[in-house]
Amino acid sequence: MAKKTKKIETPIDQRETFVSIQKSFADSDLSVEEKLKTLYALQQADTEIDKILQLRGELPLEVENLENEIAELKARSAAITAKIDEVTKAIAENKHNIVECEAQIEKYRSQLENVANSREYDSLNKEIENQDLLRQIAEKNISEGKETVAERKADLEAMKEKISVKNDDLKAKKQELATIVESTAKEEEKLREAREACAAKIDARTMSAYERIRSSCHNHLAVVSVFNGDSCGGCFNTIPPQRLIDIASNKKMIVCEYCGRILVNPDFE
Ligand SMILES: [Zn+2]
Fold first, then answer.
1. What is the Å distance from ligand 1's center to 218 Cα?
2. Do β-strands 262-264 and 223-227 pair in parallel, antiparallel, or remain unpaired?
């Protein structure tokens, strides 16, 4: 069977060598032991914060998705409304055109009564025919426009209904989320304060390594203690004896050679 644990690049990655990070870790007002303890406390706070965030589950994402969907539906509604306005305007123009055509026809018809020759007669009739054709086109445009408006209005209604349903859903989910957030707000704030206090004591390079390990581990544990006397508390692989001695000494930052997590003395627990 393939080994489940994936070798993690960090903190020994392209940007940072482990030696340099170990050095910057040691170059500090805080003793290495204090720093390791602080890192461990930071991890504890982050784990508790993660638990609180997990309680919210998919709700924040669902709220966000609903908000996006509603925004999109609203944008589509606005586009439909604009289309309705445009077609309505075109209908009015066509109606105006019909009135003009009819006036023209009326004018040509009265001229027909006083024609001097057959050529004039034919020409007037041709004009009447043209105007009548234009009138028919305008009528066709109007009836098509009306159909479009009716269809679009139906679309708009359906859209409004959808928006209303989604809005109700959003309201309920927001309420649910607010209740959960409220019930954990104080605890979360305390944890975040504790986290910040720890983070302030740790140098930037170590912090960035910590964040990188955390984000690359599925359980978001960047700092683990020795498990069962000789195993990594993150990947449960056996730690070589020399490393165990180094960890127990609290004098060096040691990472698991399999998973890259920072290993600390189990006494910290
Ligand atoms: Zn490990």
1. 12
2. parallel
* Count of beta carbons in the 10 Å neighbourhood of residue 241: 9
Q: How far is the CA of 2 from the centre of ligand 1 (A)?
A: 16
Q: What is the full DSSP assignment across 146-172?
A: HHHHHHHHHHHHHHHHHHHHHHHHHHH
CATH of domain 59-184: 1.10.287.1490
- Under the banding of pLDDT at 50, 70 and 90, the label for residue 26 is confident
pLDDT in tens, 111-160: 999 888 999 999 999 999 999 999 999 999 999 999 999 999 999 999 99
Spacing, Cα 212 to ligand 1 middle (Å): 15
Domain ranges in the chain are: 18-55+203-268, 59-184
Cα–Cα distance for residue pair 147/140, rounded to 1 Å: 11
> How remote is the CA of residue 17 from the centroid of ligand 1, in Å?
18
Distance 6 CA to ligand 1 centre (A): 10
Provide the β-strand partners of residue 226: 232
- Please state at what angle helix 18-26 crosses helix 32-56, rounded to 10 degrees: 110
Distance from the CA of 30 to the center of ligand 1, in angstroms? 26
Please state, in angstroms and as integers, the Cα–Cα distance from residue 233 to each residue in 185, 212, 229, 243, 261, following that order: 30, 18, 10, 14, 9
Mapped onto helix, strand or coil, the DSSP state of residue 264 is strand
CA of 147 to the centre of ligand 1 (A): 68
Q: How far is the CA of 258 from the centre of ligand 1 (A)?
A: 5
Look at residue 12 and give its three-state secondary structure: coil
Q: C-alpha distances in angstroms, 131 versus 107, 138, 139, 141, 231?
A: 11, 10, 12, 15, 95
